[in-house]
Design goal:
transmembrane helix; 7 strands; EC 3.5.1.89; 270 residues; binds zinc ion; Rossmann fold; 13% strand; 46% helix
Length: 270
C-alpha cells in the first residue's frame, strides 16, 4: 500500500512540475511587461526587449543564465552579453573566449552581440577587488550604445559567492542608486538560493514558482538539452564536477530574479 502511495505522490509531483512549466509559458510575457513597466493594455512582445546579460567569466552565461537567455531568444528579444573578463585565471583566456562565442551561438546569441572585456584591472581572480566605478562605467556605456531596456546580472551573493560576480552586482547597484540608468531600463538580479535548493535540479521548480520573485524563467527538456550543449562548449572547464553541476543544478532549469531598485535620475555627484 505504502509503495502505491509513494508512487502516487511522486507522479503527482512530476505532473505538477509539468503543469507549472506550461502555465509559465503562458504568463512569461505578462511578467516581462510588468517588470518593464509596460501598461497592461498596451501591446508588447519579446521583440520590444533589448536585454543585456552582464557576467564576469566565460561560462557564467550558461551555468547561471541559460533558462533566461533561451526563453528571451524564443520570444524574439535582442539578447546581448557583456562578459567582464576573458577568464584568464589559468592563462586560457584566448581559448575561453572562443568557447564563450560557441556557447552563445548555441544559446541563440550571435557573436556580434557578445562583448568580452579584457582589462588588466579586471582580472579573473576571486582575490581581486574590481573597481566599482570602472565596472559601472563599462556597463553604462554598453547600455547606452545598444539602447538596452533590461539588464540581468548577479545578485549580491553572486550564486557561487565569487568576488568577481558580486563586484558586477555592486557596479549595477551603484548605477541604480546614482540614477545613471536610462529611464526605460529595468535592472534585475539573479536570485542566489541555498545549497539544498541549488542541487535538486528540476525538482526545485515548484519552490521557485511559488516563492515571490519579479521574473521566473523556466525551460523544459528541449531547453535543457540546449543549455547542456552550451555548457559542453566550455571544454577547458569540463572537469568531473562540472558534469554533476549539469545534472543537478537548478540553474540549468530555472532562473528567478528580483528587481534592483533605482534611485532618482540624473543625480549630480559632488
Ligand atoms: Zn563566474
Amino acid at each position: 500500500m505504502s509503495i502505491y502511495l509513494i508512487f502516487f505522490l511522486v507522479l503527482s509531483y512530476l505532473v505538477s512540475i509539468k503543469c507549472l512549466y506550461y502555465r509559465h509559458r503562458r504568463t512569461l510575457v505578462k511578467s516581462l511587461k510588468r517588470v518593464m513597466n509596460v501598461l497592461p493594455g498596451r501591446e508588447a512582445d519579446g521583440a520590444d526587449i533589448t536585454a543585456l546579460i552582464v557576467t564576469a567569466h566565460p561560462d557564467d552565461e550558461c551555468m547561471f543564465f541559460a533558462p533566461t537567455i533561451i526563453r528571451l531568444v524564443e520570444l524574439n528579444a535582442s539578447v546581448h552579453l557583456l562578459c567582464l573578463s576573458e577568464g584568464n585565471y589559468y592563462n586560457q583566456g584566448a581559448q575561453r573566449k572562443q568557447e564563450l562565442l560557441k556557447s552563445c551561438a548555441v544559446l541563440g546569441i550571435p557573436a556580434s552581440r557578445v562583448t568580452v572585456v579584457d582589462h588588466k584591472k579586471l582580472p579573473d581572480d576571486p582575490k581581486a577587488e574590481w573597481s566599482v566605478s570602472l565596472v559601472s562605467s563599462v556597463i553604462v556605456r554598453h547600455i547606452r550604445a545598444h539602447s538596452v531596456n533590461m539588464v540581468l546580472t548577479f545578485d549580491g551573493r553572486g550564486v557561487s559567492g565569487h568576488a568577481n560576480h558580486t563586484a558586477v552586482h555592486k557596479a549595477v547597484s551603484h548605477l541604480a542608486s546614482t540614477g545613471q540608468v536610462p529611464n526605460d531600463c529595468c535592472l534585475l538580479s539573479l536570485v542566489t538560493v541555498g545549497l539544498l535548493r541549488k542541487y535538486i535540479a528540476f525538482l526545485e521548480l515548484p519552490l521557485s514558482w511559488l516563492l515571490s520573485s519579479c521574473l521566473c524563467c523556466i525551460i523544459g527538456s528541449q531547453g535543457y538539452r540546449q543549455a547542456k550543449a552550451a555548457m559542453l562548449c566550455h571544454r577547458t572547464q569540463l572537469l568531473w564536477f562540472r558534469y554533476l553541476y549539469i545534472t543537478f543544478s537548478r540553474y540549468m532549469f530555472v532562473n528567478t530574479f528580483q528587481m534592483i531598485p533605482q534611485g532618482p535620475k540624473n543625480l549630480k555627484i559632488y
